[in-house]
Amino acid sequence: MLYAAMVCPYLARPNARRRAGSAGSAGSGDPADELTSAAVRGAVRGGTGAVVGFGDYEYAVTGAQVLFRFLDVVGFLPHESADEHLAELRAELAKPS
After folding, report:
1. Measured between alpha carbons, how far is 26 from 24 in angstroms, rounded to an integer?
2. 70: Cβ contacts below 8 Å, ≥ 6 apart
3. Residues paired with 70 in a beta bridge
4. Is pTM beyond 0.70 here?
5. Coil/strand/helix, residue 19
6. pLDDT by residue (tens digit) across 28-45?
7. Burial level of 81, CB count in 10 A (0-12/13-18/19+)?
8. Whose CA is closest to 70, among 54, 90, 47, 89?
9. How many CA atoms, within 13 angstroms, populate the side-chain half-sphere of residue 50?
10. What angle do CA 11, 49, 37 make, to 5 degrees?
């Protein structure tokens, strides 16, 4: 998750924007947009992002999509810019596997 927060532009930077013209954009009737309506396409992410760890998850596969539900927050690392997690990511990568 630390790596994803660093390399995904939308997760990493507070001024990043979700592409406004992509398929499934607001008003398209796509059920996924109903679930993510708080993240308006074309709007900046805003000042606070986070890396969140969960204890468990559930999923379901339908004819049109895969749905995930994440349960039991076990870690929450807020950030303005994902660079704030760089030292922790390096420490994790340095651990023997």
Report:
1. 7
2. 52, 54, 56, 57
3. 57
4. no
5. coil
6. 555 555 656 666 677 777
7. middle
8. 54
9. 10
10. 80
